[in-house]
Amino acid sequence: MGFNEQNATGITDQSGGLREIATLATPLVFSQILITAMGVVDSMVVGRLGASELAAVGLAGMWVWALSAFFVGAATSVQTFVAQHHGANESEKCGSWCWQGLISVVPCAAIAGLLIFLGAHEIMQMLDPSDDVKPLARGYMRARSLGVAGLAIAVTLSSFFRGIGDVRTPFVATLLANLLNLFLDFGLVYGWFGFPKLGVVGAGVATTISEWAYAGIVAWFFGRAALLQAFGTRRAQPDWQAIRRLWRVGLPIAGQWVTEMAALALFTTFVARMGYAQMAASHAFVQLMSLSFMQAEGISLAAATLVGRYIGAERLDLAERSYRSSLVLATLLTAIVATLFMILPEQLIGLFADDPAVLAFAGPLLMLGAIYQYCDAMAIVTDGALRGAGDTTWPFIARGSLAWFIMLPLSYALAFPLGGGLTGAWCGGLVSMAILAALLVWRFRSGAWQRIRI
């Protein structure tokens, strides 16, 4: 789409339809898959070192994400403001919102990354995984913590581009960053290409360097003269009123991300205490699921852009049509993934580990995952549509409540007192996700989002 204003604001018969959502979502889907591919590649490369190494990457990576998700989530609110101004034909105001995001979010993310680095030992002592996993997880956590600020910069700038409908720029940036990560992973984990052999720590260093490269690439695109003229991207001073508005929308998003990720990290912690094989199997499953739900996340970002754009243009009917088209596209993609999960479980898990114990635990999870990823996709896409409208508080309450009061207690009960083990734990997650999807779809269909003013 690029950043052509006439194309962005013109209304046609295709507006809000499946073709428009698919055109916008396709690069976003690939971009989101590439973002999560950094963690997937880390896991695939490290998994060949052993199950303990794979478990360490899974545990530490989950907690780094949980402890930094607040700031990354807040940065995504930039997209809502940019999309609505763009839709209202006020494109010259879009650039300033990106600067307010950078000014208010990135310093906080940098402090969070420093605290994670300094507190890695204490965090691992508190989580208390098995003795063979603990030192590996600590090293990976410290390496990954150095990339938190870079990721916050990249997400803020990418949110600007997505808000104006330019989905190619984030895609190019993530593609280049992933190629770099792949090269550095093999170099730093195994000592190839003249690099030092750092093992698990090397995977963390590779991802951190790649996250900063992603930030640098997208920043270069943001500084182009064409954007300065069309979207007012010149450097802006802090506007505290704008920052308050940004955080009023972004705070529930940030809270939603951190409460859900903290719950998932806690879930991962008690899985880790089941044993290295269960933890490795669960992590491999999560990595495969991430490739699935990142497709939904790409569609969600497209829905947020179009819903925001058409609200700005005062076309609520097209905003609603965009949401319905997004659900149709998500359903088609999840059906393909579900089929792969059911017919190729051993082959898919085999990408991460060849330990017979890991394969035995992971096989049943993919059967469960076929249903889980459909519910997850419905929730993610609906969440994006609500975010485009600025309706962020209600989803935050729903997600946080279900994660802490349904998913965690039910998963623990099914796993331990009722003897369901790893599969039982994930059954609890499935029940929670199905309820969440139903609640979010109900929220959008209620029309409450039409009364939100940001």
Keywords:
454 residues; disordered N terminus; globular; mainly alpha
Descriptive report:
The protein is mostly helical. The protein has one domain (12-447). The protein is 81% helix and 0% strand. The chain is built from 17 helices and no strands. It has helices at 5-9, 18-47, 51-75, 77-87, 94-127, 134-145, 148-163, 168-190, 200-222, 225-231, 240-272, 276-312, 316-343, 345-349, 356-388, 393-415, 421-445. The longest helix is centred in the middle third of the chain and has 37 residues, at 276-312. The radius of gyration is 21 Å and the shape is globular. 60% of the residues are buried. The model is unreliable at 1-9 (pLDDT under 50).
Give the oligomeric state: single chain
**Unreliable residue stretches:** 1-9
**Which structural class do the helices and strands define?**
mainly alpha
Strand content: under 5%
Mean residue pLDDT: 88
> SSE order, as H and E?
HHHHHHHHHHHHHHHHH
Radius of gyration: 21 Å
Give the distance, in angstroms, between the N- and C-terminal Cα atoms.
26 Å
User: Percent of residues in helical segments?
Assistant: over 70%
Q: What form results from the Cα inertia axes?
A: globular
Instruction: Indicate how many domains the architecture comprises.
Output: 1
User: Please, how many helices?
Assistant: 17
**What's the count of strands?**
0
Q: Please give the largest β-sheet.
A: none
